[in-house]
Design a protein that fits this description.
The protein is mainly alpha-helical. It has a domain of 135 residues: Tetracycline Repressor, domain 2. The chain has nine helices and no strands. The N and C termini lie far apart (65 Å). One of its GO terms (molecular function) is DNA binding. InterPro entries: Homeodomain-like_sf, HTH_TetR, Tet_transcr_reg_TetR-rel_C_sf, TetR_C. This is TetR family transcriptional regulator. Keywords: DNA-binding, Transcription, Transcription regulation.
């Protein structure tokens, strides 16, 4: 007779995502995971395979629900530099206000907290990095087509630099940096691309 689950695995995964996002995998004990998800250890292991597998599933959920939609909007926006500016403005707003203020980015937290040493997690982090870089590169290429960038600007290297700027925003916001200060830094950085940026 098949095992009948008396809980919603998607709901449990969402709760686990929130726990790991806010506190990191290393600091989230199995006891904290069971409390957050409402699962006992047996259900946790049967459904997800353990804490490490649950963390991996939570990372994938975060990327699928939070990272990819923002990256897709940026890549498909069609406005060039204003799209990049709006991407960073929304990022700063999400990191510095509302329900998840001070949590940073779950993906960047994984880089910082040491989870990147796991090969499967490393591969997910690298793929996230590539997709963010590609989205920023697409927006920069649009900016080139619209004459918004300084002549001769290397768009691939600039996209990589902007990814690192996004990582910096995430790390600094997690340590309490003010939104205005982060926005000033982003504005100054984008101004280097074209002093006449609208």
């Amino acid at each position: 007779m098949p095992d009948i689950k008396h809980f919603d695995p998607d709901n449990a995964l969402e709760r686990a995502e929130r726990l790991f996002w806010q506190h990191g995998a290393a600091k989230a004990s199995i006891q904290a995971v069971t409390v957050a998800t409402g699962l006992n250890r047996s259900s946790l292991y049967t459904t997800f395979g353990g804490k490490r597998e649950l963390y991996m599933a939570a990372l994938r959920r975060y990327v699928r629900h939070r990272s990819w939609p923002a990256q897709r909007r940026l890549a498909e926006d069609g406005r060039g530099l204003p799209a990049i500016r709006d991407f960073f403005t929304a990022l700063i707003a999400a990191r510095c206000s509302g329900e998840h203020a001070g949590w940073g980015c779950m993906i960047v937290n994984a880089h910082v907290d040491g989870a990147h040493t796991d090969p499967e997690i490393r591969a997910l982090l690298d793929e996230h990095h590539r997709q963010l870089r590609d989205a920023l590169h697409a927006a920069l290429e649009t900016a080139v087509e619209q004459g918004q960038l300084s002549p001769g600007l290397a768009t691939e290297a600039t996209a990589e630099a902007l990814v690192l700027l996004a990582y910096g925003v995430n790390v600094r916001s997690r340590t309490g940096a003010a939104a205005d200060s982060l926005l000033d830094t982003v504005t100054a950085t984008l101004g280097l691309l074209d002093g006449a940026c609208p």
